[in-house]
Structures are given as structure tokens and as C-alpha cells.
Design a protein that fits this description.
Layout: E1 2-7, H1 13-25, E2 30-35, E3 49-55, H2 64-72, H3 82-86, E4 94-102, H4 111-122, E5 125-126, E6 131-135, H5 146-164
Parallel strand pairs: 1-2, 1-3, 3-4, 4-5, 4-6
Amino acid sequence: MNAIVVHESAWGNTRAVAEAIAAGLGAHLTTEVVAVADAPPLPDLRVDLLVVGAPTQAFGLSRPSTREDAHRRGGRQLATGVREWLAEGSAQLMVATFDTHVRHPNLPGHAGHGAARKLKRMGCTVLAEPETFYVEDYEGPLLPGELDRAREWGGELGRRLAERTPPG
């Protein structure tokens, strides 16, 4: 079985969480971590599990304007994001989503929930409720323990997928 973890990350926090999730999944699946700009088109994916992660910006998935704002504040320049990648087509895959989110103030909205809704509307099956991993400030860093929690969540996703997939 195989998985791909597709992420969007301007400061590296969401990428670090994606890599930790992949490490947890690695006990159960062959896993690849890919930046959204380098990800194959969604309809072309042939995986047992797709995990999608993005930072929460302006209460949800990033837009060109929020990515430009992040770049002006010192983040990497991102030409595209998860929102656009999900709009490129449809798929019927087993999926899980996550986001990074500022802990204080705990503002409403989560990119992971938006991504899960979009994927579900496409016909994907959501394996687990979206998970949030917290950063101290917009730019980060991740709060202590979040990477450990991400590895554990990845392991849990792998176990859940194995329980749903008949051997053979």
C-alpha cells in the first residue's frame, strides 16, 4: 500500500508536519511527501491514501492574496496552493486532511476542514476527521510536541487504513 502527503508551506511548519505524518505512516505504507506545486494532478493519483495539508490563512485555505501577504512577511513565494490544486479535477480516493493554525488567538476557520469538504464533494472517502497542528505565531514555530503528535496521527491513519483494506 502507498500514500502521498501533499502540502503547502510558506515557512516550513506545514512541511515539517507533513514529514512527521509521513514518518508515522511509514510503519504501514510506502509514503511520499510532495509540495503542492510539485504534486501530480489530482485525477492522476493512484494511491491508497492521500493526505493533504495546508496552513490556515484568512480563516481557510490560502488564496493568491494571502500567499502574497505571507511572502511579503518573509515566507516563501508560493505560486499555487492546495485550493487551486483541488480545483484541477476530481478523484475518488481515501483521504485525510490537516492544517497548521495559530494557537493564540484561536481564530475560527481551518484549512483542513475546507480541504476535506472539497475532497468529499469530489467523491473521496474521508478516513479521519481533519487534524490541526498549532503554531505559536503566523510564521511559527510549531508548538512543542506538535511533531510528535503528527507522527502519532500518521501512525493512526496507517492503522485505520489497514483495518479498512482487506489483505490480498
